[in-house]
Each structure stands twice: as C-alpha cells, then as structure tokens.
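Worked problem 6 (solution included).
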Amino acid sequence: MLELKNLTFEVPLADGSKETKRIIDDLSLTIPDGRFTVITGPNGGGKSTLAKLIMGVERATSGQILLDGESISERAKKGIGYGFQQPARFKGMKVKKLLDIAAGKKLPMLACNEYLAKVGLCSASYLTREVDKNLSGGEVKRIEIATILARDPKLAIYDEPEAGIDLWSFDRLTETFRDIHEATAAPS
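Solution. The predicted structure is:
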C-alpha cells in the first residue's frame, strides 16, 4: 500500500525573496495494493511533481511517503519503478543490454521479445539497436516502459506514458498496463 500523509512541496519564488510557492498542499492519499490508479489534471497541476516526490527526485517540504507502512527512502530496494516524462538515451547501449540491466540479470531472448511486444515494438528490429538519438521519442518511451516491465516492480509510476506515442500504440500500452494489473492483482 502506498500512503502519502500530509505531503507538502514548496519552491522559492524566482524573484529571490524568501517567499515560496506551494505546489503540493497537504496531500493525503492511500492507494491499496493491487489498485490501478491514474492521476490526471491540467498542465501545471502538480502531477509530475507528485511523481518526482514519490520517486525521491524531489524532497517534500513536509509530510511522509510510505510503502507498506515503511518510509521509501531506498526506493530501488523497495521495488519501485519510474518512467520519466523524457526518457534518457544511452549512446552505445543496445536495447537488449538495457533490458538485462533493468532485470538485474541476462534475460533470455524470448523474455526480451515479450517485453518489447507488450509495448508495441518488434524485437527483431530493436534488440540490437542503440538507445540513442536515432530513435524517436515514442520509441525511447516504449523501450523505457519495457525496461520497467523487465524489473517487475512492486509499484510503477509512469510520468506521461503517452508522450510521443501515437494513439494506436498508446491504446496497446493501456491494454498492457491493464493486463499487468490484472495479472498481479489476481489471487495466486
């Protein structure tokens, strides 16, 4: 269960004064295990800031962030994955190697094929390609999502997963997210 307790985030005003602007204002939220949650809102509404706070990219001014009742100061060890609004590119690194790193082990080709297929990419065309400027923003975004799937996190946060992705591919990604949710929420 993810819990946000009285979360507040403020930034200094650009004018150099000691005044601050409150981006997140005393937010409390509980997301139970197995829940598929989407947070929407207008540009500038604080969605990306909230994702960055949960991931530790930014530090809350006050409040707590808990996963299963414990502070999530060591996010990677807690099994939390994060998809950036603008994914990183890695000149010289091939997609297959990136998937292996994400999984923490050398993955069989079949597993790599499945991760890429889930995000709408043909593995034969991508496994040996470099994750560099030659890929479109949508391709890099889908590869990043595939790496998060390969990590199999307990909690995954995607900041604008549709950015740079055509509607057909995003519809396929939505189905993938739904399938993953249903598979992990199902009793064993």
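Discussion: Strands lie at 2-12, 20-31, 62-67, 70-71, 80-83, 90-94, 130-131, 155-158.
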